[in-house]
Amino acid sequence: MHDMSAPAAHHGAPTSFIRKHVFSLDHKVIGKQYYALALLAALIGMALSWIMRIHLGWGNFAIPGLHLLSSTGAPGNVLTPEYYLQLMTMHGTIMVFFVLTTAPFAAFGNFFLPIQTGAEDMPFPHFNMMSFWVTFVGFWVLIASFFVGDGPTLGGWTQYAPLSAIGSVGGPGQGLGVVLWATSIAIFCIGQLLGSLNFITTTLDMRCKGMSLMRLPLTAWAWFITSVMGLTAFAVLMPACILLILDHVAGTSFFVASNLVINDQVLPHSGGSTLLWQHLFWFFGHPEVYIAIVPGMGIVSHVLITNMRKPMLSHRVLIYSMAALAVLSYMVYGHHMFVSGMNPVSSLAFSFPTLVITIPSTIVVLMWLGSLYGSKLQINSASLFSLGFISMFISGGVSGFFLAQPSIDIMLHATYFVVGHFHLVMGVAAMFGIFAGTYFWFPKMTGRMMSEPLGKAHFWLSFVGAYCIFMPFHYLGIAGNVRRYQAFTDDYLIPLIPVHKFITIAALITGFAQLIFVYNLIYSRFKGPVETDNPWQGTSLEWSTATPPPHNNFGATMPVVYHDPYQYSVEGASSDFVMQTSPEKINNPNEEK
Amino acid sequence: MATTLPEPPKIERDRLPSQGSGNGGWRNLVPASADPRQVKDYSPPPASTGIWVGLAAITMTFAAFTSALVVRQGGAPDWRHITLPPVLYLNTLLIVASSVTLEIARRRVAAFMGGLKDPAANPARWLFVTLFLGLSFVAGQTYAWLQLKAQGFGLATNVSYSFFYVLTVAHAVHLVGGIGGLVRVVGKLNKSVLRRSTLDATSRYWHFMGVLWVYLLFLLWMKL
C-alpha cells in the first residue's frame, strides 16, 4: 500500500528520461500524458465514425484498406452489418470513456488543479501516476479486441444485457470481445477512482495560504465536483463489469434470464435480471454525462471571464448550479430506461427530477448569457470555442426537454433524435470545451502560442460542420429513422438516404477540420511564437508562475492568495486586472472572501 | 517476532505556512484587505481526507453489489437459501479481535511517538498480533471457499453461491490491501519514519474492513 501520508513536496525533480517523461510523478507530465492519450483516442474514434458515415450514405462503397482491419468484418472493403455495429460500439466506448472523460477532467485537471490551488503537486503522486498508466492499459485492452477472436463487441457502448452476457452465441464479438470490453472499462474505473481521490484531497487539503474554497477558480470547482461524481459513479460501474465478466467466464447468471433461446440454442443460464445491468449501468451512465460536461462548464467560464475582462454575474451561483447538477444527476438515471418496461410510476418518478435538472442547467446558461451581454468580449480561438460550447449546450439541451417526458421519449428513444441530442449536448459541447481549454492553456503548457488564424478556421468549420451533422439527426428521428440500423431498406426510410449522404459529407469535412487542429497543435508545439508567462493577462495562479511551470509549480516561493480569482476591471486598481497573488488593496464589495 | 527500534519516530507537527503547499485549506484565510490574518495554520493531512474518500468509494462499490443482490433476488425463480460455512463466525471473531488489537497498537505507538513510553518497549508487538489475526481471517475465508467447493458448491452452482463468492472475495481483496498497509506501517516504524497520519489512516481502513465484514455477514445471513 502506498504511503498515503507522504506529501507531494517530498518527491524531487526527476533526472532520468524514464522518470521524467514516462513513469513520472509530476502532475503536469501526467496531465500531458492524459491529453496525448485522449488525442489518440479521439482520432481513432473519429476515423471509426467516418467509416460508419460512409457506409450509411453509400452502403456498397468499398473503403480502400478496410479489410486490413478485419477480413471477415469488411470483406471486399465493405462493412458487414455486424461489423458496422462493432465499429459503432467501439466509437461510443472510446469517445465516452477515453476522450470525453479523459481530456477535460483527467488531462486539464491534472495539469492545472494543483497549480490553481497553489499546491506543489497532488498529495498522492504515486496513485496519480498509477491512474494514468492503468487508464493507458485499459485503452489498449479495448483496442486489442479489434485483433483477437471475432473482433470487438457489437452490443453498443451501453452493453445492454442479455445480449452482452450470453457469449459468442449472440454474434461476433459477444464472447471475448465483451470480456475485453468489460475488463477495459473495469481497469478504466480503477484509474478514474485513483484520479478522483487525488483531485478531492488536492482541493480540500492542498490549497495554499489564503486560498479559501470560494477563491478557487470555476475550473477548480468544476474538477472538484466532477471528481466527486467520478468517485461515486465509477465505483458502481466497476462491480457491474465484474459481474458481467463472471457471467461470461464463470457461467454465473446475474444478467441472463432462464430458458433464453438464442440462435436455436437454449442458454444454460437461469433467473438472471436483464434490468439489473441497466440499473447499475445508468447509475453510472447519467452522472457520466456530467462528468464529461461539467469540466467544460468550468473551462468555458474561466476562458470567457478572462476574455470579457469581467467576472460572471455570480461566482457562487455558478458553483452551486454545477453542484446541483452533480447531485441531481444520480436521481435521473431512470430516464434512460423509459422503454425498458418499467412501471409508469417509476417513469414519472424519474421524469420529474429530469425536468428539475434543467433548472440548474438553465441557470448556468443564463449566467453565461447575462455576463456576456454588454461585455466587450475579445474574440480569439479560445473564446470562440467557448461561445460554441454554449451554443451546442443549448441546442442539445433543448431537445432534452422533449426526451424527459416518457410519452414522447417512448416514440423517439430508438431514433436518431436521441443520437442528435446527446451528440450535441455531451459530445460536441464537451469537445468544444476541450478545444477552448487547449487554445487557452497551450501557452502555459508549452510556452508557445497556437496559430490564431488556424484556430479560427478550425472553429468555424467545426461549428458549422457540427450543426450540419447533428441538427438533421433530429429531423431524421422525428421522421422515424431508427438508430443502429446499418442500412435503410424500408420504404419509409429510403427517402431519408439523401439526408444521410449530406450528413456524411458534413462529417468528412468537419473531420478534416480536426486535422487542422492536430497540425496546429504539433506545429505550434515546436514552431509557435514564444509567449510570456501571462499572455491573456489572467488573474488565477497558473498565470502567476513561470512558463512552463517549474517542477514544484512555483519555484522558491510558494504563493499567498489575497483575492478571489476574477478581479478584472476593478475600479481604482492600478491595472485592468489584479492577480490573486497581488497584495494590492482594492475596494470591491463583491469580492469573494 | 523481534524488532529493533533505534530511536523514537519523529513527532508529526503541523506544517508552517512557509513550508510549502498544503495546510492552506479549510480555514487558513487571508482577507482581501491585504492584511494577512492567520486564522489557523492547520488543515487535515491529505492522508486523513484521502482515506475517507477511499472508503467512500469502497462503500459505493459494496452498495452496488448489495443493490445487485436485492434486485437479482426479487422475483428470481432460482433463488436458493444456503447455509453459511460455520467457520465464518470464527472469522468474524478474528477480524473483530484484530480491530481491538490494532487500536491497542495505535495507542501504544502514539504514546511511543509522543515520548510517553520507554523506547525499549516494543510498540510494534500489537501490530504483529493484528497482522496475525488478519492473515488468519484470510486463511479462514479461504477455508470456507474450499469447504464449499469440496461440497460441490461453486461460483455458478446457484446465484446465491455466486453472490457469496463475489462478496466475500471482494472483501478479502480489500482486506489484503489493509494487510499490505499494516506491513508498511511496521516497516516505517522500524525505520523511525512513520507518520502519525499514516498510522491513523491505516487504522481507519482496517476498522472499516471489520465493520464491512460484519455488515456483509449480516447481509449474507439475511438474504442467502
Describe what you observe in this structure.
The complex is a heterodimer of chains A (593) and B (224). Chain A is an all-alpha fold and 593 residues long. Chain A has one domain: Cytochrome C Oxidase, Chain A, CATH 1.20.210.10. Helix content of chain A is 60%, strand content 1%. Chain A has helices at 17-22, 27-57, 81-117, 125-144, 176-205, 218-249, 274-308, 315-329, 344-356, 358-372, 381-403, 406-412, 416-446, 452-478, 497-527; strands at residues 261-262, 265-266, 567-568, 577-578. In chain A, the strands form two sheets. Chain A has a two-stranded antiparallel ribbon. In chain A, strands 3-4 form a two-stranded antiparallel ribbon. In chain A, helix 7 (274-308) runs antiparallel to helix 8. The longest helix of chain A has 37 residues, at 81-117. Chain A is globular, with a radius of gyration of 24 Å. The two termini of chain A are 39 Å apart. Mean pLDDT of chain A is 92; it is low at 1-9. Chain B is mainly α and 224 residues long. Chain B has a domain at 80-223: Four Helix Bundle (Hemerythrin (Met), subunit A) (Up-down Bundle). Chain B has five helices and no strands. Chain B is elongated and about 65 Å long. The model of chain B is unreliable at 1-42 (pLDDT under 50). Chains A and B meet through helix 5, helix 6 and helix 7 of A and helix 1, helix 4 and helix 5 of B.
How does CATH name the architecture of chain A? Up-down Bundle
Please, what is the oligomeric state?
heterodimer
Coarse morphology of chain B: elongated
Strand fraction of chain B: under 5%
Stated plainly, the CATH topology of the domain at 80-223 in chain B is called Four Helix Bundle (Hemerythrin (Met), subunit A)
Largest sheet of chain A: 2 strands, antiparallel
CATH architecture of the domain at 80-223 in chain B: Up-down Bundle
Structural class of chain A: mainly alpha
Radius of gyration of chain B: 22 Å
Largest interface, Cβ cutoff 8 Å: A-B, 71 and 62 residues
Radius of gyration of chain A: 24 Å
What form of chain A results from the Cα inertia axes? globular
Spans of chain A with pLDDT under 50 lasting ≥5 residues?
1-9
Count of individual helical segments of chain B: 5
| N-C termini distance of chain B | 41 Å
* CATH superfamily caption of chain A: Cytochrome c oxidase-like, subunit I domain
Provide the domain count of chain A: 1
- Biggest sheet statistics of chain B: none
**Mean pLDDT across all amino acids of chain A:** 92
CATH top level label of the domain at 80-223 in chain B: Mainly Alpha
